[in-house]
Amino acid sequence: MQLWILVRIVMGLLLMSLVACTDSSSQADAAPSADNQPSDDSKAVGQRNSSGGLAWASKRYERVLQMENSGVLDCDTLSYDCQSSDRAGKIIICRADGDLVRVQHEIDAGPGTIAAETYYYDGSAVYVAETSAFSQVQTAESPGPGLVRQERRYFESGNLLDREFRSYPPLPEGREPTEVEFAYEQSGDTVDEILGSDALFNVAEETAYDCDR
Q1: pTM value?
Q2: I want to staple 52 with a disulfide (CB 3.0 to 4.6 A). Which of 48, 121, 179, 205 is the partner?
Q3: What is the pLDDT of residues 49-78, one digit of tens each?
């Protein structure tokens, strides 16, 4: 009888050991916790790797577009006409719940030429920058109706993560094509900034544009 009790105790200890090993293996194969996933907390941006940062920037970018389509963004337009530089344009400042999320700057750079730059902000940091340029001036090399060139860049903590390009002929009523119509590619011509993200952030903060700046 005592021998049978001893055998049952030993078997119980062996079973407990097997269960503990199984639990340890399951935890090792488990998916990373939510703490390791991209977050909307701007303080955590610098702690993410480039892959996570790019996913976060793309997701945040799409969210702002959805907010715009839903009419959630509160946008104000600041127009200017600088006689000293023959430059005229408008700056569209968009906020959500009082926080700056996007600034778009469009200028008339001369006859038949238009340029624009758009920056998406998380606090004062830019995570997506878009620049575009269009010229309808016909030349021997470009006799058609002109070409719109666009560049999009993704950032993390000031570091460039990715850049993509596309070009397309002007569409009716200035409509911007979907990415199904004209997809972005990984190579193309750089489209220069006009004022840059820091200058436009200051404009948004001051709600004023200084032609002499």
Answers
A1: 0.71
A2: 48
A3: 467 889 999 999 999 999 999 999 999 999
